[in-house]
Amino acid sequence: MRTLINLTDVHARIRGLLFEELRRRVAYAEKRLPCRCVYNHPHPLDSRDSVEGEPEAGSNRVTSAPGVAASRTIGLCMYGAADPQTWPGNLCEDEIDAQRCPLFKPHQSKNEIAEEYIRQLEDLDWIRDNLPRVYELLWVTGSNLQLYRMPWWVRLWWWFLRIRLEPVRAHVDLTQYLPESTEGSDGVHRP
Question: Is residue 159 part of a domain?
Fold first, then answer.
């Protein structure tokens, strides 16, 4: 028995998938990640085996667990780097670094996110590689993406949307949770 495809449902599904991708981007934009900060600079690590003929025994190398790609860069916070005398040269490569940073500034605004998304949706190869379910539905309907405008409520949601970054995580002093020290004046621990 053959069933007919209801094109209205397929069109609604395509719009829904496009909206899910937009919401995913907004959720990502609200996260404090080092790679999202304007001050973060991925600096390449030294991967040479020797320097001026002398062997470099593993310095500046990153190893990882089997099957996990090792990062060949290290994140530097470039805030204040214009003055080398006062620039602290802090590392900023882990999520917790960005989550605790009061200077965090995202490199993409709401409008830049929308412009990037629209530009990517104009490229059918990008859709095939990154939104395969949308690509399959476009192929089934034989249509292109220009037919699919976001519904009015999505456009209204986008107009009112304000990207709110995760709040700065406070630094927690874990020493307050340790038991009282019973060291004597001579530095010997007594029970």
Answer: yes
Q: Return the pLDDT at 104.
A: 87
- Per-residue model confidence (pLDDT) at position 65: 56
pTM: 0.64
Residue 2 belongs to a domain? yes
| Structural domain for 73, as ranges | 37-50+61-103
User: How do strand 40-44 and strand 73-77 relate by DSSP bridges?
Assistant: antiparallel
**pLDDT tens track for 99-142:** 888 888 888 888 899 889 989 988 889 999 999 999 998 888 88
What's the burial of 165, exposed, middle or buried (CB within 10 Å: 0-12/13-18/19+)?
A: middle
- Please give the Cα distance from 183 to 188 (Å, whole number): 5
Report if residue 73 sits inside a domain: yes
Kindly state the DSSP code that residue 162 receives in the 8-state scheme: -
- Between CA 29 and CA 27 the distance in angstroms is 5
Tell me the CB-side half-sphere exposure of residue 37, using CA atoms within 13 A: 27
Structural domain count of the chain: 2
Q: Which residues have a Cβ under 8 Å from the Cβ of 93 and sit 6 or more positions away?
A: 34, 71, 74, 75
DSSP 8-state symbol, 73: E
Structure tokens at 19: 């909206």
Element (H, E) at 129: helix 124-130
